[in-house]
Amino acid sequence: QVQLVQSGAEVKKPGASVRVSCKPSRYTFTNFYMHWVRQAPGQGLEWIGLINPTDDSIDYAQKFRGRVSVTRDTSTSTVYMELSSLTSDDTAVYYCARESSGLKNFDFWGQGTLVTVSS
Amino acid sequence: QSALTQPASVSGSPGQSITISCTGTSSDVGYYNYVSWYQQHPGKAPKLVIYDVSNRPSGVSYRFSGSKSGNTASLTISGLQAEDEADYYCNSYTGSRTAYVFGNGTKVTVL
Prior knowledge:
The structure holds two protein chains of two kinds.
Chain A: E1 3-6, E2 10-12, E3 18-25, E4 34-39, E5 45-52, E6 57-60, E7 68-73, E8 78-83, E9 92-99, E10 106-109, E11 113-117
Parallel strand pairs in A: 2-11
Antiparallel strand pairs in A: 1-3, 3-8, 4-5, 4-9, 5-6, 7-8, 9-10, 9-11
Chain B: E1 9-12, E2 18-23, E3 35-40, E4 47-50, E5 64-69, E6 72-77, E7 86-93, E8 100-102, E9 106-110
Parallel strand pairs in B: 1-9
Antiparallel strand pairs in B: 2-6, 3-4, 3-7, 5-6, 7-8, 7-9
């Protein structure tokens, strides 16, 4: 069964940056796009962006452009999402999610990483 | 890009059928057949239950079905069971500067 294992919870101060990792297993890393989605406490899901691990191409939601960076390390088959200039509004659970073979849906999800922004 | 519009809550008794609507625009739901639905239990990651408007992934109950008419997609859960109590989110590809948009979510309660 496909697994996406994310890094642990983070606590950051306003203005700082956070990097969350996502390590997939049991499939060929470069064959599937990887997305990032977040969920603020008690709120809905919000799409952040995606990466094509084959060629490193990326696409970000307009809201996050200039503040987010999604990268991949093919040597360790790991995807990273870095978000900078954090505010309390960025407190959320961040998920990585695999795109189902170009079908523009998310068939497997990581367990989520809670990022808390607090002074 | 605004969130797709879903009812905040829907409820039904065991065995009944319920339908959740998801309204977008002619640029997302109305244009593409890339509408998917996700079930999320408290404290858990979302789970894909419908993709491409009406297709069920392997392992998802036949009680889940999807459809679309114009700018509105729908998820129907038939034979409602206690385990179906969860939050449900629709998602659509938009092809725009924000490529994907989620609905605001619907809480399903089994009475």
